[in-house]
Write a structure and sequence with these properties.
The complex is a heterodimer of chains A (about 270) and B (about 230). By secondary structure, chain A is mainly α. Helix content of chain A is about 70%, strand content about 0%. Chain A has one domain. The radius of gyration of chain A is 21 Å and the shape is globular. In chain B, strand 6, helix 5 and strand 7 form a beta-alpha-beta unit. Classes of the chains: A mainly alpha (about 270), B alpha/beta (about 230). Chains A and B meet through helix 1, helix 2 and helix 10 of A and strand 1, strand 5, helix 2, helix 3 and helix 5 of B.
């Protein structure tokens, strides 16, 4: 014991921002699906099962994709960005309570905890997306995405929207239990209104006017433009999901200041 | 070194604002072993967290020159789903330290061998406390902050904690917040009393305790009159 104390190793200048976020991502990965036999494989199995279920529903209900594509790739192009958006929100909301004491290890910050959770979801879903699309291309004879970069851009917009709204929800959740319980209810309609099962070109003009305000719809349609050659959507403005994500992100930083000041005043830290 | 400039901290209570720290200005250097004696609910733990910059004051500035520890012995960051060794490795990496060295130190210090690889949820609280203390000692800081905790476990282990801390304090300072003058007198060379939101200089821990007791008695008398 005394020997190792004597060594008194030269201190590094602590860890860098990037290192801390990476370490927190590693911690999130190790702790998220603990206890089950499949462990972290659940992070990949859940979205795959989700896609399989929706494709199955397509067959059972006799729904024909509008773009003369295989149902698998059509569903994947809609549901992958949706899951990325939804999982990023869930991860952010989970991260604050589960990592609240990590801020004792300065300079770990709330921003780093939330960023690590969001990046972990982006990484997971990138792996899932490549695996799912690759499987569909190989086993269902679907063509490769026409513009992979555009598809990736759409996915990143869906993720960014999840980062902004997730951060907002994580902080709001610390202020109000009612809000935390309301989030699934608030988000449920998005599953049906964001073009997971249909494209914007199938909709009448009156619906388009309303659904223009669904930022996730824009992100999903950008993914579809990347997937399907010649497809141009009337709802694929990247500014809408980007600005919405940015808006919620900005509001969340103000809320964070309020939350921390409130908890301090109440002696809750 | 830790510098506090006009630090104010208060809590909202149902009966109004409870001022814990009312404009404290102080400086604690590497050569200091400062003992702060404080009464119950006087803001002792709050001051410890402010000194470690875990909590921000409502007003004023806290400056760190060099590395300042979290409150010694803190083990709240241990995740129940991770092993003791994994928890230690994560903290070590966050602090820019070699995980292997820190784990080896903690094993050696606590005398735990395979037990350190058991997950947090099955580790007895006493073992977690020992690991928390070992972790604080494994990572060198320029200033240590302690909220009552100068050792854990049985007498033998507490003795080991004291020796390890003494060794660390050869190259570092200490701010020790306690309700007990006995420990403060044993460890520290400068003495303060936290009373009415202010730090009052004293010449011993015993005197600091008397100052705190006198302030509490005055407060209670005031309440009785109301």
């Amino acid at each position: 014991m005394d020997r190792s104390l004597d060594q008194n190793p030269i201190l590094n200048n602590s860890s860098s921002f990037f290192e801390r976020v990476t370490i927190l991502m590693h911690r999130e990965m190790r702790t998220r699906f603990v206890g089950g036999a499949l462990g972290y494989a659940w992070a990949y199995l859940t979205p795959v099962a989700w896609i399989a279920f929706v494709v199955g529903a397509f067959y059972v209900l006799g729904r024909v994709p509008p773009l003369l594509m295989s149902p698998q790739i059509f569903v994947a192009s809609g549901i992958l960005p949706y899951i990325l958006f939804r999982q990023t929100i869930s991860a952010s909301m989970r991260a604050l309570p589960s990592s609240r004491y990590m801020v004792y290890f300065r300079p770990v910050s709330v921003a780093e905890i939330l960023l690590a959770a969001s990046l972990m979801e982006l990484l997971n879903m990138t792996i899932v997306s490549v695996a799912v699309v690759g499987t569909i291309v190989v086993f269902f004879d679907a063509p490769m995405p026409a513009d992979p970069l555009k598809a990736l851009f759409g996915l990143i917009l869906a993720w960014w929207l999840g980062v902004g709204f997730g951060r907002f929800s994580a902080i709001m959740g610390r202020l109000s239990d009612t809000y935390t319980r309301s989030v699934p209810i608030i988000l449920r309609p998005l599953f049906w209104l964001s073009g997971v099962f249909f494209t914007a070109t199938e909709l009448p003009a009156s619906s388009l006017d309303v659904l223009w305000y669904s930022p996730l719809f824009h992100a999903i349609e950008i993914v579809r433009e990347g997937f399907f050659l010649g497809y141009h959507s009337p709802l694929s403005n990247p500014v809408v999901p980007f600005a919405t994500g940015l808006f919620f992100y900005a509001v969340s930083t103000v809320l964070e200041t309020y939350w921390q000041a409130r908890d301090k005043r109440r002696g809750l830290l | 070194m830790i510098r506090l400039v006009d630090v104010v901290r208060y809590h909202d209570t149902p009966t109004g604002l409870d001022v814990l720290l009312s404009g404290i200005t102080a400086q604690f250097s590497r050569s200091d072993r400062v003992g702060i004696v404080a009464g119950p609910s006087s803001g002792k733990s709050t001051l410890a967290r402010i000194l470690a910059k875990i909590e921000r004051p409502d007003r004023g500035v806290v400056q760190h020159f060099g590395r300042v520890s979290w409150p010694i012995g803190f083990s709240g960051g241990f995740h129940a789903a991770l092993s003791g060794a994994d928890n230690i490795a994560i903290t070590a990496r966050l602090m820019g330290q070699s995980p292997a060295r820190v784990i080896a130190f903690c094993k050696d210090f606590t005398g735990l061998d395979d037990e350190i690889d058991r997950i947090g949820m099955v580790l007895p609280p006493a073992v977690r406390a020992k690991l928390g203390f070992a972790l604080s000692m494994a990572i060198p800081f320029d200033m240590y902050v302690s909220d009552e905790n100068l050792g854990v476990g049985d007498a033998e282990f507490r003795d080991r904690c004291t020796k390890a801390l003494d060794k660390r304090l050869q190259n570092a300072g200490l701010v020790f917040l306690s309700r007990s003058a006995t420990y403060v007198d044993r460890v520290c060379n400068k003495f303060l009393a936290l009373t009415d939101g202010q730090l009052v200089e004293c010449h011993s821990g015993k005197q600091a305790e008397e100052v705190v007791k006198a302030a509490l008695a005055t407060k209670q008398k005031g309440r009785a009159h109301v």
